[in-house]
Specification:
By secondary structure, this protein is mostly beta strands. It has one domain (18-133). It contains one helix and ten strands; from the N terminus they run βββββββαβββ. It has a four-stranded antiparallel sheet, with no helix packed on it. The protein has a four-stranded antiparallel sheet with strand order 5-6-7-8. A hairpin with a 5-residue loop joins β1 (18-22) and β2.
Length: 153
Amino acid sequence: MRRDGSGREKIVPDAISTIRSISPGGRWVVALTPTHHDGLKTETIAIPTEGGAPRRICPGFCDALWSPDGKFFFVRFQSAPGGVPFKTLELPIQPGRSLPDLPAAGIRDLLEGSSLRGARIFERADFASAPDPSIYAYTKASMYRNLFRIPLP
């Protein structure tokens, strides 16, 4: 739609449960959609805003977004309970394109994604990238608790 709210159009006929991000040029939208493939209830897809077929980023849920300059695509994977901490896969985007080369079935996990050309793994999921991919900010939480009990009258 336009900035004033007029000119609304659907980009896909199917339902979208959540929009996660939009590419810097506005050519792609990453969204969660309901699915019934492979026993999954949702999948993460990239939808072209100018028409064309959506592309699966990952079966199930993952968070995907672009670097501010559009040169990198980040896919954040959730950890299973008791599993490895959240991690992020960084994939370079070829000049003139808006998405990296992804497998047709999407990226199933971090291990599969790490085998893609130019892939790099960040040990964090909650970070913000700068135009230079070697510079980023992240959240580091620490908790300190009182280890002693102080009796109160």
